[in-house]
Automatic annotation (TrEMBL):
Annotated source species: Methylocystis hirsuta
Gene3D superfamilies: 3.40.50.2300, Winged helix-like DNA-binding domain superfamily/Winged helix DNA-binding domain (1.10.10.10)
Protein name per its UniProtKB record: DNA-binding response regulator
Domain HTH luxR-type: 141-206
PROSITE patterns (UniProt xref): HTH_LUXR_2, RESPONSE_REGULATORY
Keyword Protein transport attributed: no
Gene Ontology molecular function: any one: DNA binding
């Protein structure tokens, strides 16, 4: 029996995944979580074989949750299941320690295939994300976030989302001074002249949505 922790901030969505997965004879959902903190706590409590995690969570993102869980358990098997198909998100998830990445636009069979691969210790990637990564790597230059580590990428996302230094420090359990140091390092690494320029670059990298376009 493969035990699974589901992480998504929408209870109805989690219920749908639960029904799909538990129709399979060898899968059992042993815990659920709605945010990164709950995910880490649940993982430590139940030690599931696999975590299926969304990226868009309240507060810290799924990438931060992956990083935190993998710090505690280097063998953790985590499959990202998200609406984000951008290469930047997928690459940072893998860099943080994810074992697979499937988009929610994929059909149910692709999710089940990915779960099976990750359960065997392999790496899984949905076709649409594989195409995005290939297109980026074949294109000119390096992506903006290639210059940043997972923690720096998470802080950039939070800054660009309008979070204050104090908010970010609370979400990531860091001191405000440490957040300020990261903020300065990020601007230096990616060549942002001002915070407004930093936000513009983050939008261009697909880390946050462009509010003016909605």
């Amino acid at each position: 029996m493969t035990t699974i922790l589901l992480v998504d901030d929408h209870p109805i969505v989690r219920e749908g995944y639960r029904r799909l997965l538990e129709r399979q004879p060898d899968y059992r959902i042993v815990a659920e979580a709605a945010n990164a903190t709950e995910a880490y706590q649940a993982y430590r409590k139940v030690s599931p074989d696999i975590v299926i995690m969304d990226l868009s969570l309240p507060g810290a993102s799924g990438v931060e949750a992956v990083r935190h869980i993998r710090q505690w358990d280097k063998s953790a098997r985590i499959l990202i299941f998200t609406m984000h198909s951008g290469a930047a998100f997928a690459l940072k998830a893998f860099e943080a320690g994810a074992s697979g990445y499937v988009t929610k636009s994929s059909d149910a069979a692709e999710l089940l295939r990915a779960v099976a691969i990750v359960a065997r210790g392999g790496r899984a990637l949905s076709d649409d994300v594989a195409r995005e990564i290939a297109a980026e790597r074949l294109g000119e230059g390096r992506a903006l976030v290639d210059e940043l580590g997972p923690r720096e990428t998470e802080i950039l996302r939070l800054v660009a989302s309008g979070r204050t230094t104090e908010d970010i420090a609370s979400i990531l359990n860091l001191s405000p001074k440490t957040v300020q140091n990261y903020h300065y390092q990020i601007k230096s690494k990616i060549g942002a002249r001002t915070d407004a320029h930093l936000v513009w670059l983050a939008i261009g990298a697909g880390l946050v949505g462009d509010a003016s376009a909605t």
